[in-house]
Amino acid sequence: MTATSEHPWWREAVFYQVYPRSFADSNGDGVGDLAGIRAHLDYLEDLGIQAIWLCPVMRSPMADGGYDVSDPRSIDPLFGSLDDMDALIADAHARGIRVIMDVVPNHTSIEHPWFGEAVAAGRGSRARERYIFRDGRGIHGSEPPNNWPSIFGGSAWTRITEPDGSPGQWYLHLFAPEQPDLNWENPEVFEDLATTLRFWLDRGVDGFRIDVAHGLAKPEGLPDMTITDNRLLAHNDADIRFNDEGVHDIHRKIRKVIDEYPEAVTIGEVWVDDNARFGRYLRADELHLAFNFRLAETKFDARAVRDAIENSLLAVAEVGATPTWTLSNHDVRREVSRYGGGPVGEARARAMAMVELALPGAVFIYNGSELGLPNVDDLPEDVLQDPAWERSGHTERGRDGCRVPLPWKAATPPFGFTTAARSWLPIPPDWADRTVERQRSDPSSMVSFYRAALRLRAERTEFGGAGVVWLPGPSGAVLFQRPRGLICVLNAGPTPVELPAGNVLLASAPIVDGLLPTDSAAWLV
Ligand code: GLC
After folding, report:
1. What spacing in Å lies between the alpha carbon of 334 and ligand 1's midpoint?
2. Which of 138, 285, 367, 480 is the most buried (most CB within 10 A)?
3. Domain limit, last residue, from 172, 200, 215
4. Is the CB of residue 181 below 6 angstroms from any atom belonging to ligand 1?
């Protein structure tokens, strides 16, 4: 793989997001692990992806699926060892696949040694300065320091007991109480992250997905907020808990470390809607890439899809950055279900995959999308693990429905995912027809379709060039052309549409008499 600074490897890469708990289990404990991923690199290579994004695998008590890290420079035994990680990187590299890891700089686990020290060291200590401790409001400080809710429900503040046994200060946690927010005004916090980044980069990792990249800096004085809609994923630009201007200095510092490794990439989780504010994260000395979630948030509607694409392109154009596209991840409902479920949802998911793969920039595919997996909305309550379920008083089921393990083979659960009798979340029996084994032998399956699409995207020069030109078309259809010639047509309307002149490279549904059926897409050159 060659890459230059003018044309870095990640600019048009297809990243495959692995949710390690749910990809493949090698040791029979019902939970996926690093050796399981390594054992399936053939599958990923054959699929045709260029890089893997690995959700957190560092040591963690797993209060939030690993996003509560107690030692950022280690591997959790649930997933394996540092040797397993080294072996995965080496084997992936041998196949030309890059590996990026998830880092979680906004918070640690309460089991991180720093947090124990902070509680033990008492008020005003240096150890407490690594987190955001404050005295409470009201008589005896019995009220939280401000009115911020946690993303997972309840207050964003938890009161500790001081070492002398008295009711004490409160600490901030934008997420679960097991995830105390770090104080990014303390230089030690940055120094530690820098050590972590170098630790993994020196082991051969190709970059990082930066968790909550828009949340690290907090507004001066931690004022009360006015937003009342705190539903999970109800992102709002007016939410002062996120996107504080001070965050950009932090990204500049992170970038300096990353630049010590010329081919490394950073991709930020940036839930910011406003194009100008989003673009600021991608200035030349900040993040390389940031997730643009517009496509994942957009319904299957021609106008909405076109708007999402236009806005995503605009957001990066001003700063000359690379666009990114994704239909889903481990936090959102799977696209097949969002688009209506069943055969319709699946047809639309196929069509939207063609849209994202036709666009300029980097694409992120969430594991299982290529199998057309639906969201599992009826998981039994007693298996739900997302902290949102408990924290919301059982009003938010949370994100487990998109984290159900992958079905690999055989006719009954757990479908070769594990040799244990049960996987950590149960796999629906009717996924028997969605296993990798079944789909790979069927040329019309979702996985065969993804494979064909990824091959064309990698091999055909018509996919080249920046930006898109919109072509006229009937209402309900979206048509765009890439500078080197590829035309993508999406039919989100109720009736078949005529295709423009050209040779069809791929279509997500059979074309009859030159007409592209509803809920489908085609590529032409
Ligand atoms: C990000 C992750 C999500 C996690 C949260 C807290 O949004 O994608 O899964 O719960 O950060 O770390």
Report:
1. 16
2. 367
3. 172
4. no
